[in-house]
Amino acid sequence: MHKIIICLAILITLIYSPLLYSKENDIQFKWKLIEVIASDIDTIKIDDGNFFKIDNSGILQIMKKHGNRYYPYTREGKILHVTSGEVVRKWEVLHVDEHNLRLDSPLGIYVLKR
């Protein structure tokens, strides 16, 4: 009986741990753009109303002053291969949790919040 309980506990843990992990570390969401830390370490504060909407295949930048732009991407772990026109650029997920996302791009580090 004791072995059955242990097996059930392990099975439940295995079933739910990928769900908990992906929920906490998933970048697929609508994120509010807070600031951009430029490559030369200047910080650019961003006005309210600018967002990144990330799904499993693309990033939609919703920018008040510049309109919307959609960038398809593929993902390999923390690395996103983002396509802009015919150019593919590497972005990196530096940090993600339930409320925060930091993406390192060629333009700088995007600081985003849920």
Can you list the strand order of the major beta sheet? 1-3-4-5-6-7-8-9
**Could you report the average pLDDT, rounded to the nearest whole number?**
84
N- to C-terminal distance: 45 Å
Count the helices. How many? Answer: 1
Structural category is alpha+beta
Characterize the quaternary organization of these chains.
Answer: single chain
Number of DSSP strands? 9
For the biggest sheet, the summary is: 8 strands, antiparallel, barrel
Order of helix and strand elements from N to C terminus? HEEEEEEEEE
Poorly predicted runs of 5 or more residues? 17-24
What global shape is seen?
globular
Question: In percent, how much strand structure appears in the residues?
Answer: over 45%
Q: Which CATH class applies here?
A: Mainly Beta
CATH overall fold name: Lipocalin
| Proportion in helices | 10-25%
Describe the protein's topology.
Elements: H1 2-25, E1 30-38, E2 43-45, E3 51-54, E4 58-63, E5 67-76, E6 79-84, E7 87-96, E8 100-105, E9 108-113
Antiparallel strand pairs: 1-2, 1-3, 1-9, 3-4, 4-5, 5-6, 6-7, 7-8, 8-9
Question: How does this model look, in words?
Answer:
The chain is an alpha+beta fold and 114 residues long. The chain has one domain: Lipocalin, CATH 2.40.128. 21% of the residues lie in helices and 53% in strands. The protein is built from 1 helix and 9 strands; from the N terminus they run αβββββββββ. It has an 8-stranded antiparallel beta barrel with strand order 1-3-4-5-6-7-8-9. β4 and β5 form a beta hairpin. The chain starts with a helix and ends with a strand. About 7% of the residues have low confidence.
